[in-house]
Amino acid sequence: MNLLLINASPRRERSLSRQLANAFLTRWLALRPHDTVVARDVGIDHPPLLTEAWIAACFTPEEDRTPAQRGVLAYSDAAIDELAQADVLVIATPRYNYGMPAALKAWFDQVIRINRTFSFDRAEKTWPLSPLLSSKTLVLLSASGEFEFHAGGLRENWEHLAPHVRTCAHYLGVAPDDMHHVTIEFQEFGDERHQASLQGAWEAARLLAGRLATAPLSPARTAFLEPASGSSH
Ligand SMILES: Cc1cc2nc3c(=O)[nH]c(=O)nc-3n(C[C@H](O)[C@H](O)[C@H](O)COP(=O)(O)O)c2cc1C
């Protein structure tokens, strides 16, 4: 199995989402030591923002692209190749301003690309875009300063991270049931609620790694962890 790790925090050692990803991958590799992990650190090495030249290059047939246009698409090509190789995508990210950080959004913008990750059929009047990739599992590992972004929670209506990632992930070949989310909350409080959330998230991440690593191709792959302290789906 191939795993692709996307870290989106600009923080390094202090990043909780990075630490959670480490816990997840440590457990995974203990169970499947021969799997490969490719890491792309968008939090430190920011993906380029899209430009008019990028859009024009995308819509130019591959055989007609100039060397300059190929250069403009180089980051996107490399990031999509990594994604296409991956069976499991692990995205570790902070919550910023109630959604994903700009660096992670920039990565999605680079990899959701016409004729590479989705097709576009103008004759299809309702859903013209279709994903070209399939059968991928997404593990979203997030950290938040505040809390209760889950369905029915205090900040349910302020949750723009997981739903946005879920929608974008459709175009990466991730079916809704193949997305799993473990989150740390209360970081800004640093109190006992934060400690409980940390502990719950660590446990949920290890359980999820164990579950996915031991039954990655079976129906159990899509099983949800029961919502517990520190985890949501
Ligand atoms: C610029 C900025 C914006 C943030 N916005 C939010 C927010 O909207 N909601 C929230 O719950 N926490 C917010 N936080 C807190 C972070 O989500 C929290 O510190 C988290 O632990 C960061 O992830 P990391 O530890 O992996 O770096 C924000 C933090 C920063 C620095």
Provide a short characterization of the protein structure.
The chain has 233 residues and is α/β, with parallel strands linked by helices. It has 7 helices and 7 strands, in the order E-H-E-H-H-H-E-H-E-E-E-H-E-H.
What can you tell me about this protein's structure?
The structure is a single chain. Helices cover about 35% and strands about 20% of the residues. It is α/β, with parallel strands linked by helices and about 230 residues long. The chain has one domain: Flavodoxin domain (Rossmann fold), CATH 3.40.50. The strands form 2 sheets. Strands 2-1-3-6-7 form a 5-stranded parallel β-sheet, with helices on both faces. It has a two-stranded antiparallel ribbon with strand order 4-5. Strand 1, helix 1 and strand 2 form a beta-alpha-beta unit. The longest helix has 23 residues. The chain is globular. The C terminus is likely disordered. The site of flavin mononucleotide has 17 residues, from helix 1.
